[in-house]
Amino acid sequence: MQLDELEERLVPFLRTMLEDPFAKVAGATMAPGHAGFAYLFDVRSEGKLLRYWMRLPPPNVKLEGTADVLRQVTVLNALEGTDVPHCPVVWSGDDPQWFGRPYFVVERMGGDVFRDTYLRDFDAGQRRDVARQAMAALAGVHRVDWQTRCHYLGEFWGFEFDITRWDRFYERAAEPQRLALQPRIKQLLLDSIPNDTRIGLYHGDFQFGNMIVSPAGKLDAIIDWELCGIGAVLNDVGWICAFNEPDAWASNRATAEVATAAELEALYREAWGGDPGNINWFKALALYKFSIIAGFNLMLHRRGKREDPNWEETALSIEPSMEYALKALGG
After folding, report:
1. Confidence class for position 35, pLDDT limits 50, 70, 90
2. Where in the chain are all domains bearing CATH 3.90.1200.10?
3. Which DSSP helix (H) or strand (E) runs through 212?
4. 118-130 per-position pLDDT tens digit
């Protein structure tokens, strides 16, 4: 949706929702990041400046998976009343009269995402405290009563599905020689599926880049829930640990300056209050997934289907990530 059309649609929507016939949109822009059709806009109403973030699905697509924005609404509403920092939903719905598709709106937070140069504004002690807050919040996500609050998300599809669903992406990856260990790692994952892990609500892309932190070092919100689902909650722990495992990457990652994988694992165990299970298996699964994703996105970039030169550098970590996954599985 073009910004001029969005602003035109926002005016009657906001005047209705705010019950203010004189509310004015002060400006609308595309939101930064990879959230797709996400927008920032300000509203002047009754002498106040209100600031919002809105998510729409892409046009003319089937409203399922990441395009089903009401999945995120389900999670954000399920977090109400918990200690998990999140952005409460202000408005949401699927009435096409407003934007022609489902939508949800949250208030904008005053901090910033905890990555790149922003995290370097904090000293080592503050970064460690953000890591502690993050893993405590993650344990809170995993304690949500999903069976009564998250029906909309469906059920767990099983471990085998989560391992094999990446096959079609692997088959289309650029530089397949970098993924030479894929068959071996896939088989090891299938042969060692954990049978004692907790099933519950998971974020799906839990990393420091999906957290808003205030300038004072307070975790204000976990954001970007489009990959959320019901499954093994240790998927989230394995994912953030994998992204902060120095030996799994070709170059240093800035977020490793916050906490290493070992430190994050220890913080989660502390927050959970016991042994959560075999985190190593989920770390291996995370590295396996991301290596295939990197190869696939590199293919899209090189073919001009989704240009993003960052995948050229990221692809350099495919081999060390696969080698670490193999080692984590005892292969």
Report:
1. low
2. 112-328
3. strand 211-213
4. 988 999 999 999 9
Separation between Cα atoms, residue 326 and residue 182, nearest integer Å:
9
Q: How many angstroms separate the CA atoms of 207 and 188, rounded?
A: 26
Q: What is the CATH number of domain 112-328?
A: 3.90.1200.10
> In this model, does residue 1 exceed pLDDT 70?
yes
Q: Which amino acid type is present at position 44?
A: R
Which CATH number is associated with domain 3-107? 3.30.200.20
Residues contacting residue 271 through CB under 8 Å, at least 6 positions apart: 132, 135, 136, 138, 139
Closest alpha carbon to 157 in 205, 229, 70, 227: 229
Tell me, what's the pLDDT at 21? 97
- For the chain, how many residues are written? 331
> What are the residue ranges of CATH 3.30.200.20 in the chain?
3-107
Long-range contacts made by residues 246-253, C-beta under 8 angstroms, separation at least 24?
247/320, 247/324, 248/287, 248/317, 248/320, 248/321, 248/324, 248/325, 249/317, 249/320, 249/321, 250/316, 250/317, 250/319, 250/320, 251/313, 251/316, 251/317
Contacts of 82 (CB under 8 A, 6+ apart): 140, 143, 144
The residue assigned the tokens 């999670």 is 75
Residue 198 DSSP class:
P
Furthest C-alpha separation in the chain: 66
